[in-house]
Amino acid sequence: MWNPFKKKHEDEPSAQSAPEQAAKKEGKKESIEERLEREIDSLPEMIKGKLKDPAIKKRFIDIAKRMEKDGVDFKSIRQMKKWMKAHEAELKAEMSGGTVTKVETVVHEGPKIGRNDPCPCGSGKKYKKCCGAGK
């Protein structure tokens, strides 16, 4: 079972897979896609099932690349959560396919009408008995 809190020891040769050891010997860095393919079996079933969808897999890889570009350590869950929180608005905007829209507060002009005041429609009734009956 995948444990996000389990630390991998670099001094243990058994903790590294063959492709990872070969990449270290050659001196080249393994890409996000290669790491994902290598570690996909150790992911939780829920994530593993969703990564079968190519669109979600691409989105997952894109976010991981952006995190790597910003210098986030993938072994630190705290750093990943901090990055996600800082970029939450733009990630949601990308998911919705648009830009971030700001919600504006509605400001009512004119005096506030109390329920026992005369109705502004001019009927002569109290507001609560006329236009405010359903509210």
Low-confidence blocks of residues? 11-15
The major pleated sheet works out as: none
How many helix segments? 6
Structural class: mainly alpha
Q: State mean pLDDT (0 to 100 scale).
A: 76
DSSP helix fraction:
40-55%
Beta strand count: 0
**C-alpha geometry:** rod-shaped
Distance between the termini: 54 Å
Structure description:
The structure is a single chain. The protein is mostly helical and 135 residues long. The protein has six helices and no strands. The chain starts with 17 loop residues before the first helix and ends in a 39-residue tail after the last helix.
What is shown here, in short?
The protein is an all-alpha fold.
Write the layout of secondary structure elements.
Layout: H1 18-26, H2 32-39, H3 45-50, H4 54-69, H5 77-86, H6 88-96
